[in-house]
Design brief:
Layout: E1 9-12, E2 23-26, H1 30-37, E3 40-41, H2 62-81, E4 86-92, E5 100-105, E6 110-116, H3 117-120, H4 127-142, H5 156-172, H6 176-181, H7 188-197, H8 201-225, H9 250-262, H10 284-288
Parallel strand pairs: 4-6
Antiparallel strand pairs: 1-2, 3-5, 5-6
Helix pairs in contact: 2-4, 4-5, 4-8, 5-8, 5-9, 7-8, 8-9
């Protein structure tokens, strides 16, 4: 049996004898199927596609578009396959959609990632920023708590956090030459924070690179929402009373990318924290599974915490 049964519920019937009760699996209902296949998007709905032109000169060209996606998907395909499902990516360079999405098909046992050329061609998006979007979509599948209710998908904030805390760190860990360049590109406030969080030069340079990729996306998000450009030194002051599963504002998302880059906890890719927990994915018991893999106040961590502008722990 897989680590969890994707989209299938297990029903145990009472037995009148001492023998083990028989177990039956039924097909998911129409509502369950709809929830499983619902697309989770990187951005809210927008009309930025109206400004897209394939011939635009961008930071990410067609060759880079395919290579960046392939690099991320190739790295994480064995991780996904260990859960007994297949990972499929649709690389849609000619599509002007300024977004990306993820979905799951429980019956086919396929997890999807959809990447669009319209997003890659945005002037704000750098190659590293684009890689973080691919990571974000994988985060919907693998990020764990905080979930969008009892469905399969991690929330938008959690997917952002997983993108920098886990995905980019694993993906770029050995790219020391490129990471070293980030030393001359990183904003000073981010550099200071990375130096405090991480002990070695290699770890710090990787942190610089991850934060700069997050800044690229924060600029895009600000442009979409007509908001001021976010800064590392001006975190979102809002404090939610209940975890928000929707798309956070640009500054809040930058804060989340930054927090993930600063979190020194090692995430166990063999487990999706809180997924299908017997007491529910929104329970304290489900969230407790994140203490070992993410930075939390319950775990005694002081930095790298998921920002209060979207996340509210139920543990404290």
């Amino acid at each position: 049996m897989n680590k969890f049964q994707v989209g299938l519920l297990t029903i145990t019937l009472a037995a009148s004898t001492a023998q083990a009760a028989p177990v039956f699996r039924r097909p998911p209902t129409a509502a369950e199927r709809a929830a499983e296949k619902a697309e989770q998007t990187f951005l809210p709905p927008n009309n930025l596609h109206l400004r897209d032109r394939v011939e635009n000169v961008a930071n990410v060209n067609e060759e880079q578009f395919h290579k960046i996606i392939d690099d991320v998907i190739t790295f994480f395909t064995p991780v996904v396959e260990a859960y007994g499902v297949k990972l499929e990516v649709n690389k849609l360079w000619d599509n002007p959609t300024v977004n990306a999405s993820a979905s799951q098909d429980a019956l086919k046992k396929i997890w999807y990632v959809n990447m669009y050329g319209g997003l890659a061609r945005r002037p704000e998006v750098t190659p590293d920023g684009f890689a973080l979007v691919v990571c974000h979509e994988l985060g919907h599948h693998l990020g764990g708590v905080a979930f969008k209710g009892e469905m399969w998908a991690s929330s938008e904030g959690q997917s952002d956090y997983w993108a920098t805390q886990v995905c980019a760190r694993r993906l770029w860990a050995r790219d020391s030459f490129r990471n070293r360049r980030a030393r001359n590109e990183v904003d000073q406030p981010a550099k200071v924070a990375c130096d405090m969080a991480w002990g070695t030069a290699n770890e710090r340079e990787l942190c610089y690179r991850v934060t700069e990729g997050g800044m690229s996306l924060a600029h895009l998000l600000a442009s979409l929402g007509g908001q001021p450009k976010p800064k590392f030194e001006t975190p979102d002051p809002r404090v939610v009373t209940v975890t928000s599963t929707a798309h956070p504002q640009a500054q809040c998302r930058l804060d989340t990318y930054f927090a993930g880059a600063l979190c020194t906890k090692a995430f166990d890719l063999n487990k999706i924290p809180g997924r299908k927990h017997p007491k529910g994915q929104l329970s304290a018991e489900a969230e407790a599974e994140t203490v070992a893999s993410s930075c939390t106040t319950a775990g005694g961590d002081k930095i790298g915490l998921r920002p209060a502008c979207w996340f509210k722990s139920v543990l404290n």
